[in-house]
């Protein structure tokens, strides 16, 4: 069995700090720690050691074909929906068409490297809460929907390994394996 990995855009520290400051007075909700915040471009549940080097090379090539983009965290929603939520998220605005093209290039590179990505359609978002059980979350979606963070220029992607349940409080532990610059 290989490693669980994903490719993501990680917001810079000032963006994370701004969102953390927005969530801090609402600490009664189980928020994900800021160091785990990211915008997933592709998720691969089983990357073999032999595919990992090819994956890094492919991601570098995919990133080089795309340009840096201006992004902003704003808006909100829930998966599958606010009335029966398992995940709460903050939306992404800005150059989302370019972000979508980047996600397609990343997924194609992963497939070509032998690290098959999941079949989920790309939906640009940053997960801020994973709930232990499905529950109605319309109030929290309305609160999160008022958030508009600072914009930033995304100029790299990260390949991140994920180990479930071994981080603090039973959370996943993330390790950045490689980064690739855009453009």
From TrEMBL:
<feature type="short sequence motif" description="HXTX 2">
    <location>
        <begin position="125"/>
        <end position="128"/>
    </location>
</feature>
<feature type="short sequence motif" description="HXTX 1">
    <location>
        <begin position="38"/>
        <end position="41"/>
    </location>
</feature>
<dbReference type="InterPro" id="IPR004175">
    <property type="entry name" value="RNA_CPDase"/>
</dbReference>
<keyword id="KW-0378">Hydrolase</keyword>
<feature type="active site" description="Proton acceptor">
    <location>
        <position position="125"/>
    </location>
</feature>
<dbReference type="InterPro" id="IPR009097">
    <property type="entry name" value="Cyclic_Pdiesterase"/>
</dbReference>
<comment type="similarity">
    <text>Belongs to the 2H phosphoesterase superfamily. ThpR family.</text>
</comment>
<dbReference type="Pfam" id="PF13563">
    <property type="entry name" value="2_5_RNA_ligase2"/>
</dbReference>
<protein>
    <recommendedName>
        <fullName>RNA 2',3'-cyclic phosphodiesterase</fullName>
        <ecNumber>3.1.4.58</ecNumber>
    </recommendedName>
</protein>
<feature type="active site" description="Proton donor">
    <location>
        <position position="38"/>
    </location>
</feature>
<comment type="function">
    <text>Hydrolyzes RNA 2',3'-cyclic phosphodiester to an RNA 2'-phosphomonoester.</text>
</comment>
